[in-house]
Write a structure and sequence with these properties.
2 domains, Jelly Rolls, about 25% helix
């Protein structure tokens, strides 16, 4: 009834129409500051947007609607729009001082915490704005997918800059998957699940019924000759780290999540290196990981959970702003597919609700060479084996001097390339 009555007025007798009769609108609005408002909030919903009209080379994937705060309207303006991706986004704005600092988080946190926030400057005021999708994951992947045979490294990195992750379908062939599984299975079968670290949080993170197998360079010929020497993987890494210099392999490990395992705590991979967290979201990405599916990963057996675009959220050393499981999309993969993620995106292993299926994914993580490698390759690997590897594999394993941005060289001896000392 209220909507019908308002539309029947055809613009007449509306508050905004009286502005024309105010001689000095600026002074009148300034007088309103700090005074009690007629209402706490007002909501504007512009409905659903589908796509651009007519032929176009552009496509709208998602939308955010926000309005400038007003001195004579409600204290909080809530702006609503549903984009072509089916996600309903909320934008909230208010003038500085309209909400007490102690209450700001309560407003930003409605209806659910964990959203991305940022400051919006408008009309000389500094309101606070927030937007968040109310769309819940359907259990189907929502990250963009690219086939290996048509991928371009620049396009992969561009997608990652927008979404934080991308799926590459068929990064490994079925033959490569079969050979790699056969080479690693004996060592994996001999392992006991669970963490060896006597620390409750680390045990929870590692998974009490999860096996983590490292030293893959030694164990698998396919891994050392075809995975970490992959032209596709290196072309993506070259593009991903091109602004920050050399990169090397941080770790490579089979993560086999066993039946009955709960969800892994959500996290960001940059947590390995506290400066990456301390510098906040403006810091360049510190790592890139290729999560290679060794068998089909599903919602039921523990497919990886990820929150698209969470790499754009604010975070600090004290608050990593990890959101919630409800915001995650479930990234199901076929054997040979790879989920490629940066170090800032929030993610975690899913719960394995099966009775007898182990979800197997190998994580191959490369990091900026300014950071320490997670895995102790230089101690563990047999140098006779390393001697036979291609030059770029020697380098990413830590047997060559590396040059992060503006560095005169790391991993050196007497200011010379470590290759001179090794003699190979």
């Amino acid at each position: 009834m209220i909507i019908d009555h308002t539309t029947a007025q055809k613009g007449a007798d509306m508050m905004i129409g009286y502005l024309a009769h105010i001689p000095n609108q600026r002074d009148w609005m300034l007088q309103k500051l700090g005074r009690k408002r007629m209402s706490a909030f007002e909501l504007s919903n512009v409905g659903t947007s589908t796509t651009l009209r007519g032929a176009s080379n552009f496509a709208i994937e998602n939308m955010l609607f926000s309005q400038s705060p007003s001195a004579f309207s409600a204290a909080i303006k809530v702006s609503v729009v549903t984009g072509p991706d089916g996600r309903l986004a909320l934008g909230s704005t208010w003038q500085e001082g309209a909400i007490e600092n102690g209450n700001r988080d309560d407003v930003v946190g409605f209806p659910r915490p964990g959203r991305s926030t940022g400051d919006v400057k408008s009309a000389g005021f500094t309101p606070f704005s927030t937007s968040e999708s109310l769309h819940q994951p359907s259990g189907k992947p929502t990250l963009r997918r690219v086939r290996r045979d048509v991928l371009n490294a620049k396009e992969i990195v561009r997608i990652m800059s927008e979404d934080g992750a991308v799926v590459i379908e068929g990064l490994l062939t079925q033959d490569q998957v079969a050979r790699y599984n056969a080479e690693t299975e004996p060592a994996l079968a001999a392992m006991h699940p669970g963490s060896l670290v006597d620390h409750e949080e680390i045990q929870s993170f590692h998974g009490r019924n999860t096996k983590r197998l490292c030293n893959l360079t030694t164990l698998s010929k396919t891994f050392r000759e075809e995975v970490i020497n992959s032209d596709t993987i290196h072309s993506i890494c070259d593009e991903f780290f091109h602004m920050t210099g050399d990169y090397w392999l941080s770790t490579a490990q089979v993560m086999s999540i066993g039946p009955g395992s709960p969800r892994q705590p959500l996290h960001r991979d940059h947590g390995n290196w506290y400066p990456a967290r301390a510098m906040g979201p403006s810091m360049p990405e510190s790592s890139i990981s290729f999560l290679l599916a060794q068998n089909n990963t599903t919602e039921e057996n523990g497919a990886t959970l990820a929150i698209p675009r969470s790499h754009l959220w604010d975070f600090t050393l004290e608050n990593d702003n990890l959101g919630s499981y409800e915001q995650c999309t479930i990234v199901e993969l076929n054997a040979g597919d790879a989920l490629v993620i940066g170090g800032k995106i929030v993610h975690g292993g899913g719960a394995n609700r099966t009775k007898d299926i182990w979800r197997k994914v190998t994580t191959v993580m490369f990091c900026n060479a300014a950071f320490t490698q997670e895995e102790a390759f230089q101690i563990v690997l047999d140098r006779e084996l390393v001697k036979k590897l291609p030059e770029r594999v020697k380098k990413v394993l830590g047997f060559r001097t590396v040059y992060p941005l503006q560095s005169p060289g790391l991993n050196t001896l007497n200011n010379d390339d470590i290759a001179a000392y090794l003699g190979w």
